[in-house]
């Protein structure tokens, strides 16, 4: 696992021009950065180890549409620089799940929702605790006078008078 994450970091460091510009509800827009000075950018898609050119698209960005909510596959942009006439190739591997009714939640907002929920629940617990201790008749408070029972209504069983 560590080796794979190292490989991904190495690939990102070697090829910094790979960029996902935007993740939309129905697809992903990828950007072939570095090709600003190029006259024409060609896009390719790898289908089952058979690469095919995407015709009619020569922009720096390419929108990959989702297939059943998932965008996946290998994509490649290729261009020739105008100054050095050097051919540049950049490979993108996409595996993104998109949906139309998704909502992006920032870390700060998620933390605020969780903290607010914990504080609200604690407040409800405290209020219930305060009301139940005021109205409970289980223990008597200090300063109350114990009035002895009337001898006529007291229990006159055999052992009731033993102290």
UniProtKB/TrEMBL annotation:
Residues 26-105 form the CD3 gamma/delta subunit Ig-like domain. Keywords: Cell membrane, Membrane, Signal, Transmembrane, Transmembrane helix. InterPro entries: CD3_esu/gsu/dsu, Ig-like_fold, Ig_4. GO terms for biological process: cell surface receptor signaling pathway; positive thymic T cell selection. It holds the Pfam family Ig_4. The keyword Protease does not apply. GO terms for molecular function: transmembrane signaling receptor activity. The keyword Transmembrane applies. Gene3D superfamilies: Immunoglobulins (2.60.40.10). It is found in: Cell membrane. GO terms for cellular component: alpha-beta T cell receptor complex; external side of plasma membrane. Coiled coil: none annotated. It is a single-pass type I membrane protein. Residues 1-19 form the signal peptide. This is CD3 gamma/delta subunit Ig-like domain-containing protein. It comes from Cyprinus carpio (Common carp).
